[in-house]
Amino acid sequence: MNLRQLETFCLVVELGSFTRAARVLHMTQPAVSLQIKNLEEELGLPLIERGEKQLIITDGGHLLYRQAKRILSEWNILQDGLEQLKASQTGTIRLAASTIPGEYLLPVLLATFRNHIPGVSLGLNITDSEAVGQLLLERAVHLGVTGVALKDPLLECQPWRSDEILLIVGPEHPWFGVQEIEPGRLWESPWILREQGSGTRKVVETRLQTLNIELSQLLVLMELGSSRAVVTAVASGLGAGWVSNLAVADMLAEGKIAAVRVKGLDLSRTFYLLRHRQVFLPPIAQKFYEFLLKQV
Protein backbone atom coordinates (compact mmCIF):
# COMPACT_ATOMS: atom_id res chain seq x y z
CA MET A 1 0.00 0.00 0.00
CA ASN A 2 1.29 3.47 -0.83
CA LEU A 3 0.13 7.08 -0.65
CA ARG A 4 -0.63 7.18 -4.37
CA GLN A 5 -3.09 4.31 -3.98
CA LEU A 6 -4.76 6.02 -1.02
CA GLU A 7 -5.06 9.31 -2.94
CA THR A 8 -6.59 7.48 -5.89
CA PHE A 9 -9.03 5.57 -3.69
CA CYS A 10 -10.17 8.72 -1.85
CA LEU A 11 -10.71 10.56 -5.12
CA VAL A 12 -12.81 7.71 -6.56
CA VAL A 13 -14.97 7.75 -3.41
CA GLU A 14 -15.37 11.55 -3.47
CA LEU A 15 -16.17 11.77 -7.20
CA GLY A 16 -18.23 8.57 -7.29
CA SER A 17 -16.61 7.51 -10.54
CA PHE A 18 -13.47 5.75 -11.77
CA THR A 19 -13.63 7.72 -15.01
CA ARG A 20 -13.85 11.14 -13.35
CA ALA A 21 -11.06 10.24 -10.94
CA ALA A 22 -8.88 9.12 -13.86
CA ARG A 23 -9.51 12.43 -15.61
CA VAL A 24 -8.46 14.45 -12.54
CA LEU A 25 -5.37 12.29 -11.99
CA HIS A 26 -4.44 12.35 -15.71
CA MET A 27 -4.52 8.56 -15.77
CA THR A 28 -6.44 6.01 -17.79
CA GLN A 29 -9.57 4.51 -16.28
CA PRO A 30 -8.10 0.96 -16.35
CA ALA A 31 -5.04 2.23 -14.45
CA VAL A 32 -7.25 3.66 -11.72
CA SER A 33 -9.28 0.45 -11.54
CA LEU A 34 -6.05 -1.55 -11.25
CA GLN A 35 -4.86 0.55 -8.32
CA ILE A 36 -8.14 -0.06 -6.46
CA LYS A 37 -8.01 -3.78 -7.31
CA ASN A 38 -4.45 -4.06 -5.99
CA LEU A 39 -5.50 -2.24 -2.82
CA GLU A 40 -8.42 -4.64 -2.30
CA GLU A 41 -6.17 -7.67 -2.84
CA GLU A 42 -3.59 -6.37 -0.39
CA LEU A 43 -6.22 -5.66 2.29
CA GLY A 44 -8.24 -8.80 1.57
CA LEU A 45 -11.54 -6.89 1.49
CA PRO A 46 -13.79 -5.45 -1.21
CA LEU A 47 -13.76 -1.66 -1.01
CA ILE A 48 -15.92 -0.50 -3.92
CA GLU A 49 -18.71 -2.35 -5.72
CA ARG A 50 -20.11 -1.25 -9.06
CA GLY A 51 -23.87 -0.73 -8.91
CA GLU A 52 -26.12 -0.25 -11.90
CA LYS A 53 -26.04 3.52 -11.68
CA GLN A 54 -23.42 4.36 -9.07
CA LEU A 55 -20.51 3.02 -7.08
CA ILE A 56 -21.28 1.40 -3.73
CA ILE A 57 -18.74 1.91 -0.98
CA THR A 58 -18.50 -1.12 1.31
CA ASP A 59 -18.10 -0.94 5.09
CA GLY A 60 -14.42 -1.65 4.62
CA GLY A 61 -14.25 1.13 2.05
CA HIS A 62 -15.82 3.64 4.40
CA LEU A 63 -13.36 2.70 7.16
CA LEU A 64 -10.39 2.96 4.80
CA TYR A 65 -11.60 6.31 3.46
CA ARG A 66 -11.78 7.89 6.92
CA GLN A 67 -8.34 6.65 7.92
CA ALA A 68 -6.78 7.42 4.52
CA LYS A 69 -7.93 11.04 4.73
CA ARG A 70 -6.16 11.35 8.09
CA ILE A 71 -2.99 9.73 6.76
CA LEU A 72 -2.92 12.01 3.70
CA SER A 73 -3.57 15.06 5.85
CA GLU A 74 -0.72 14.05 8.18
CA TRP A 75 1.56 13.63 5.18
CA ASN A 76 0.67 17.10 3.88
CA ILE A 77 1.38 18.63 7.28
CA LEU A 78 4.70 16.77 7.47
CA GLN A 79 5.67 18.04 4.02
CA ASP A 80 4.76 21.60 5.04
CA GLY A 81 6.83 21.31 8.19
CA LEU A 82 9.88 19.92 6.41
CA GLU A 83 9.73 22.60 3.74
CA GLN A 84 9.38 25.36 6.30
CA LEU A 85 12.28 24.01 8.33
CA LYS A 86 14.35 24.63 5.22
CA ALA A 87 13.12 28.22 5.04
CA SER A 88 11.25 29.29 8.17
CA GLN A 89 10.14 32.58 6.61
CA THR A 90 8.15 30.85 3.88
CA GLY A 91 5.42 28.24 3.66
CA THR A 92 1.66 27.86 3.83
CA ILE A 93 -0.58 28.51 6.83
CA ARG A 94 -3.99 26.85 6.64
CA LEU A 95 -6.66 28.40 8.85
CA ALA A 96 -10.33 27.78 9.57
CA ALA A 97 -12.56 30.31 11.30
CA SER A 98 -16.19 30.81 12.15
CA THR A 99 -18.00 33.58 10.30
CA ILE A 100 -17.40 36.63 12.50
CA PRO A 101 -13.67 36.28 13.14
CA GLY A 102 -13.21 34.94 9.61
CA GLU A 103 -14.89 37.91 7.95
CA TYR A 104 -14.19 40.81 10.31
CA LEU A 105 -10.96 40.10 12.22
CA LEU A 106 -8.64 37.73 10.44
CA PRO A 107 -8.38 39.38 6.98
CA VAL A 108 -6.76 42.51 8.43
CA LEU A 109 -4.47 40.47 10.70
CA LEU A 110 -3.48 38.19 7.84
CA ALA A 111 -2.56 41.22 5.73
CA THR A 112 -0.48 42.68 8.58
CA PHE A 113 1.35 39.40 9.13
CA ARG A 114 2.07 38.99 5.44
CA ASN A 115 3.44 42.52 5.22
CA HIS A 116 6.08 41.47 7.76
CA ILE A 117 6.70 38.07 6.15
CA PRO A 118 5.98 38.40 2.40
CA GLY A 119 7.01 34.81 1.63
CA VAL A 120 4.12 33.25 3.52
CA SER A 121 1.06 31.82 1.74
CA LEU A 122 -2.24 31.97 3.64
CA GLY A 123 -5.42 29.96 3.24
CA LEU A 124 -8.62 30.74 5.19
CA ASN A 125 -11.68 28.49 5.30
CA ILE A 126 -14.74 30.30 6.73
CA THR A 127 -17.36 27.95 8.14
CA ASP A 128 -19.28 27.38 11.39
CA SER A 129 -17.62 26.69 14.75
CA GLU A 130 -18.34 22.94 14.77
CA ALA A 131 -16.86 22.55 11.30
CA VAL A 132 -13.73 24.44 12.40
CA GLY A 133 -13.21 21.88 15.14
CA GLN A 134 -13.74 19.02 12.70
CA LEU A 135 -11.17 20.42 10.27
CA LEU A 136 -8.64 20.63 13.11
CA LEU A 137 -9.38 17.06 14.20
CA GLU A 138 -8.93 15.90 10.60
CA ARG A 139 -5.64 17.85 10.58
CA ALA A 140 -6.75 19.65 7.45
CA VAL A 141 -5.81 23.06 8.94
CA HIS A 142 -3.12 24.30 11.31
CA LEU A 143 -5.17 26.72 13.41
CA GLY A 144 -8.79 27.66 14.04
CA VAL A 145 -10.75 30.60 15.46
CA THR A 146 -14.26 30.17 16.87
CA GLY A 147 -16.87 32.05 18.85
CA VAL A 148 -17.31 29.21 21.36
CA ALA A 149 -14.90 26.95 23.23
CA LEU A 150 -15.07 23.45 21.74
CA LYS A 151 -15.03 20.67 24.29
CA ASP A 152 -12.87 18.08 22.55
CA PRO A 153 -9.89 16.85 24.61
CA LEU A 154 -7.70 16.87 21.49
CA LEU A 155 -8.28 20.59 20.92
CA GLU A 156 -6.54 23.36 22.84
CA CYS A 157 -8.81 26.43 23.12
CA GLN A 158 -7.02 29.64 24.03
CA PRO A 159 -9.22 32.65 24.98
CA TRP A 160 -8.38 35.44 22.56
CA ARG A 161 -10.63 38.47 21.99
CA SER A 162 -13.97 39.65 23.34
CA ASP A 163 -17.17 40.29 21.41
CA GLU A 164 -20.83 41.10 22.08
CA ILE A 165 -23.86 39.65 20.37
CA LEU A 166 -26.67 42.12 19.73
CA LEU A 167 -30.39 41.70 19.24
CA ILE A 168 -31.09 43.72 16.07
CA VAL A 169 -34.29 44.93 14.40
CA GLY A 170 -35.11 46.88 11.24
CA PRO A 171 -36.83 50.30 11.00
CA GLU A 172 -40.30 48.78 10.56
CA HIS A 173 -40.06 46.48 13.56
CA PRO A 174 -42.14 47.46 16.66
CA TRP A 175 -38.99 47.37 18.81
CA PHE A 176 -37.05 49.82 16.63
CA GLY A 177 -36.06 52.71 18.92
CA VAL A 178 -36.87 50.74 22.08
CA GLN A 179 -33.89 50.61 24.45
CA GLU A 180 -34.82 47.46 26.39
CA ILE A 181 -37.51 44.80 26.45
CA GLU A 182 -38.60 42.21 28.98
CA PRO A 183 -37.65 38.59 28.15
CA GLY A 184 -41.31 37.68 27.88
CA ARG A 185 -41.64 39.86 24.78
CA LEU A 186 -39.29 37.67 22.75
CA TRP A 187 -42.31 35.60 21.68
CA GLU A 188 -43.83 38.66 19.97
CA SER A 189 -41.43 38.65 17.02
CA PRO A 190 -40.50 36.29 14.20
CA TRP A 191 -36.79 35.44 14.28
CA ILE A 192 -34.00 35.18 11.74
CA LEU A 193 -31.33 32.87 13.16
CA ARG A 194 -27.91 31.55 12.22
CA GLU A 195 -27.73 27.89 11.29
CA GLN A 196 -27.16 24.97 13.67
CA GLY A 197 -23.45 24.74 14.52
CA SER A 198 -22.95 28.51 14.52
CA GLY A 199 -21.04 29.90 17.51
CA THR A 200 -23.35 32.92 17.65
CA ARG A 201 -26.39 30.67 17.85
CA LYS A 202 -24.84 28.48 20.54
CA VAL A 203 -24.11 31.48 22.76
CA VAL A 204 -27.65 32.83 22.33
CA GLU A 205 -29.19 29.41 23.07
CA THR A 206 -27.11 28.95 26.20
CA ARG A 207 -27.72 32.44 27.58
CA LEU A 208 -31.48 32.31 26.92
CA GLN A 209 -31.63 29.10 28.96
CA THR A 210 -30.45 31.10 32.00
CA LEU A 211 -33.77 32.96 31.63
CA ASN A 212 -35.67 29.65 31.23
CA ILE A 213 -36.24 30.34 27.53
CA GLU A 214 -35.58 27.77 24.81
CA LEU A 215 -34.63 29.26 21.46
CA SER A 216 -36.59 26.51 19.71
CA GLN A 217 -39.78 27.79 21.37
CA LEU A 218 -39.60 31.13 19.58
CA LEU A 219 -41.16 31.79 16.17
CA VAL A 220 -38.22 30.99 13.90
CA LEU A 221 -38.94 32.29 10.42
CA MET A 222 -35.67 31.19 8.81
CA GLU A 223 -32.14 29.96 9.51
CA LEU A 224 -29.30 31.44 7.45
CA GLY A 225 -25.69 30.48 6.91
CA SER A 226 -24.00 33.84 7.45
CA SER A 227 -24.29 36.92 9.64
CA ARG A 228 -24.51 39.13 6.55
CA ALA A 229 -27.60 37.23 5.42
CA VAL A 230 -29.20 37.63 8.87
CA VAL A 231 -28.51 41.38 8.88
CA THR A 232 -29.95 41.78 5.38
CA ALA A 233 -33.11 39.86 6.30
CA VAL A 234 -33.57 41.89 9.49
CA ALA A 235 -33.02 45.21 7.70
CA SER A 236 -35.62 44.12 5.13
CA GLY A 237 -38.24 43.79 7.88
CA LEU A 238 -38.53 40.00 8.06
CA GLY A 239 -37.98 39.82 11.80
CA ALA A 240 -35.45 40.23 14.60
CA GLY A 241 -32.07 38.53 14.81
CA TRP A 242 -28.90 38.10 16.83
CA VAL A 243 -25.50 38.94 15.35
CA SER A 244 -22.07 40.10 16.48
CA ASN A 245 -21.49 43.78 17.07
CA LEU A 246 -18.64 43.50 14.55
CA ALA A 247 -21.10 42.63 11.78
CA VAL A 248 -23.41 45.62 12.25
CA ALA A 249 -21.32 48.55 13.51
CA ASP A 250 -21.69 50.51 10.26
CA MET A 251 -25.42 49.89 9.87
CA LEU A 252 -26.08 50.84 13.49
CA ALA A 253 -24.22 54.11 12.98
CA GLU A 254 -26.26 54.82 9.84
CA GLY A 255 -29.57 54.06 11.57
CA LYS A 256 -30.48 51.27 9.14
CA ILE A 257 -31.00 48.88 12.05
CA ALA A 258 -31.20 49.26 15.82
CA ALA A 259 -29.96 47.19 18.77
CA VAL A 260 -32.33 46.28 21.60
CA ARG A 261 -31.29 45.03 25.02
CA VAL A 262 -33.12 42.18 26.74
CA LYS A 263 -33.41 42.69 30.48
CA GLY A 264 -31.16 40.30 32.37
CA LEU A 265 -29.58 38.81 29.22
CA ASP A 266 -25.79 38.98 28.95
CA LEU A 267 -24.57 38.25 25.42
CA SER A 268 -20.88 39.07 25.78
CA ARG A 269 -18.58 36.29 24.58
CA THR A 270 -15.00 35.35 23.81
CA PHE A 271 -13.33 34.28 20.57
CA TYR A 272 -10.92 31.35 20.89
CA LEU A 273 -7.74 30.33 19.12
CA LEU A 274 -7.73 26.58 18.52
CA ARG A 275 -4.97 24.10 17.74
CA HIS A 276 -4.65 20.32 17.80
CA ARG A 277 -2.76 19.18 20.89
CA GLN A 278 -1.05 16.32 19.05
CA VAL A 279 0.01 18.21 15.93
CA PHE A 280 3.43 19.83 15.57
CA LEU A 281 2.91 23.26 14.04
CA PRO A 282 5.29 24.16 11.22
CA PRO A 283 7.54 27.09 12.22
CA ILE A 284 5.66 29.65 10.14
CA ALA A 285 2.27 28.53 11.58
CA GLN A 286 3.72 28.68 15.10
CA LYS A 287 4.95 32.19 14.39
CA PHE A 288 1.48 33.23 13.19
CA TYR A 289 -0.13 31.67 16.29
CA GLU A 290 2.18 33.70 18.53
CA PHE A 291 1.40 36.79 16.46
CA LEU A 292 -2.35 36.29 16.98
CA LEU A 293 -1.92 35.85 20.73
CA LYS A 294 -0.50 39.37 20.88
CA GLN A 295 -3.48 40.86 18.98
CA VAL A 296 -5.84 41.16 21.97
From TrEMBL:
Molecular function terms, GO-annotated: DNA-binding transcription factor activity; transcription cis-regulatory region binding
All copies of domain HTH lysR-type, residue ranges: 1-58
Keywords: DNA-binding, Transcription, Transcription regulation
Family: Belongs to the LysR transcriptional regulatory family.
Keyword DNA-binding: yes
SUPFAM superfamilies hit by this protein: Periplasmic binding protein-like II (SSF53850), Winged helix' DNA-binding domain (SSF46785)
Organism: Carboxydocella sporoproducens DSM 16521
Record protein name field: DNA-binding transcriptional regulator, LysR family
InterPro entries assigned: LysR-like_Sec_metab (IPR047788), LysR_HTH_N (IPR000847), LysR_subst-bd (IPR005119), WH-like_DNA-bd_sf (IPR036388), WH_DNA-bd_sf (IPR036390)
